[in-house]
Amino acid sequence: MNSLMRREPYDGAVSLQKAMDRLFEESFVRPAFSQDMNLALDMYETDQDVVVKLAVPGVKPEDIEVTVVGDTLTIKGKVESEEETKERNYHLRERRFGQFARTVTLPAPVQVDTTTAEFENGVLTLTAPKREEVKPKTVQVKAVS
Questions:
Q1: What is the pLDDT of residues 53-65, one digit of tens each?
Q2: What is the pTM of this model?
């Protein structure tokens, strides 16, 4: 036996109050910025290495922590805030401060103990050598007579 269900046209709509609450919470209470800061990351691989470049403007090298667990790379750090002066009349305030974390999956297994990290002009460059078992190997073909 078929039963009829009454359809409520506004059942899935978000109330204005809920939308404003979510906007306020995401903007001020726990901004999304605090986790990833929208940090630009480039990752590529060569035959020998996996290379990751991360733009971290305003961060000191000693405030960056890099960890590799399995095939997961995590970069954490913090950007110190400037002392706020009451006399300033800001027109824009877009730079953000606080802690950040960026996690990515590496495309190949790497040797963590020989990974290098260099920091220059606000760019962190990680060079992680691939494990021997995933590096390309050439097999020589011999002619049989």
A1: 999 888 889 999 9
A2: 0.64
